[in-house]
Write a structure and sequence with these properties.
homodimer; 268 residues; alpha+beta; 2 domains; 11 strands; DNA-binding
Chain lengths: 268, 268
DNA sequence: CTCAATTTGTTCGTATGTATG
DNA sequence: ACATACATACGAACAAATTGA
């Protein structure tokens, strides 16, 4: 029994697929550079402790993907053109979040006028009613996130047309009449259900990044609740550990007067 | 051809596994409450457009997991005791990071005295030499992260014994003689290679959160470079969008004099 | 109590995919 | 390339348990 069979039992994914993904990672991470000759079939056979045919199946997959080229009698080589992935940087503060949304064009899927969001503990209080907006975000014709937004009805009614056609947060950011008390985001790793898989063009069960984003106004009401599902492939998160700059009130030039977070309580 | 077959082609994961994970998500998300009767086999058959037996295989998996209970003639029900997962909150600032590390006991795997870390663009300059520490972090006997730390040799030599036996960042935090200029973290979603899968007790290819954490001293040298791989299951990330409090210099009571990040440049 | 409707449980046959040696 | 074994997936038929009319 191969060393991997214990792990194989855990995963249930066909062995040759597993081997393929390990090899793919080695190429994409640069562990095997472009043009380089990779281990021989025999070496791989021994390393993974699987049959020769199984290794071949794995290599075949990567050949179809264009990552590998095999030449009889010579060996298997990493293709030259290994274009690196283009990353989408997830925003970790209000300003960059708004900035990143400005260019985006959401494709609206549906609007539902009678729906309530799920709130966690520190997500403020429910508004009396919400409008639910569903859309998909694209970047170069490629879908990269599914967005489910619950917008407090009173806020939506202030600029219904604008909210229907632009990113909701950008619109909120522009509205002088709204003052924010808090805005936060909770991220977890999930996996794509059939519907999301279809929208994002990824396999069912593929890992996703699920963001639960809540904006609370000065009345303590959750006026915006966004549940956003990103395809995890192209997501990067940059976090400055030593105090990212606080959002300063001067930001008000754009209309939003932001309450500074309280210095206390956080570490209580 | 079933609606899912196109997606199936994308994923290559056995159909019944895919169906099982969708059902599992519905239960864990509370979409199907505890005690509730779920759709009949026939309905699921139609929804997923797969054969009866395939649905049954999926249900069987969840029964073995204890999530479902089936009763002939009656239906299939969600088990009462759906204990929710216990999350590990990833730290997003220095103080909470240090705090979260203090209790932890790393199990050292190896020490390598001749190894260089991979640095990204804004990761500062390389020190002349590094010590590489490899360990696994546990929480209640369960492994949850694999840690690969490169520590500047000069820093390591100041307290070699301490660094060998405690979390490196905590030790750095305690050292008066070190002043920090910058510390940041880059997160991406990856997948487990055989070695990591074995250490974290997860299937090969299971999604992981890869953190690239860099600490730069006042000389611009990357004195600490940690590549940490978390099992993604139990990771939560909480981000305050409206200005998380900056780490104040008063923190120096603990020995570390921290340079405030510069107000400029960031948005240049 | 019996009957019918509903729903899970079981089995057969067949075709294809996966993995070994 | 071949022979073997087992896993995956389909469709269909039938058996067994539960409920309510």
């Amino acid at each position: 029994m191969s060393k991997l069979l214990k792990a194989y039992d855990r995963s249930r994914v066909p062995l040759y697929i597993q081997v393929a993904s390990v090899l793919r990672t080695r190429i994409q991470s640069g562990q095997w550079a472009a043009g380089e000759k990779i281990s021989t079939l025999e070496e791989l056979e021994q390393e993974f402790e699987v049959a020769r045919v199984t290794v071949r199946q794995a290599v075949d997959i990567l050949r179809e993907e264009g990552l590998l080229q095999a030449r009889q009698g010579l060996g298997t080589f990493v293709s030259r053109k290994t274009q690196d992935r283009h990353w989408v940087k997830l925003a970790t503060n209000w300003n960059s979040l708004i900035e990143s949304l400005k260019g985006n064009v959401p494709r609206r899927l549906s609007i539902d006028y009678d729906s309530k969001p799920n709130l966690a503990d520190s997500d403020g209080e429910l508004a009396s009613s919400y409008v639910k907006l569903r859309s998909v975000q694209y970047r170069n014709e490629d879908p990269y996130s599914v967005v489910n937004v619950h917008l407090a009805r009173e806020v939506f009614d202030l600029k219904p047309d604008r909210f229907k056609n632009a990113a909701a947060l950008v619109t909120i950011d522009e509205m002088r009449e709204i003052t924010l008390r808090n805005a936060h985001q909770m991220l977890v790793i999930g996996s794509a259900d059939p519907e999301v898989a279809d929208l994002l063009k990824i396999p069912i069960g593929a890992p996703t990044v699920e963001a639960h984003c809540v904006v609370i106004d000065d009345g303590g009401i959750a006026i915006y609740v966004g549940d956003i599902i990103y395809r995890s492939e192209s997501i990067k998160l940059q976090i400055d550990l030593l105090g990212p700059q606080p959002v300063l009130p001067k930001r008000g030039r754009n209309g939003v007067k932001v309450d500074l977070p309280r210095r206390k309580s956080r570490r209580a």
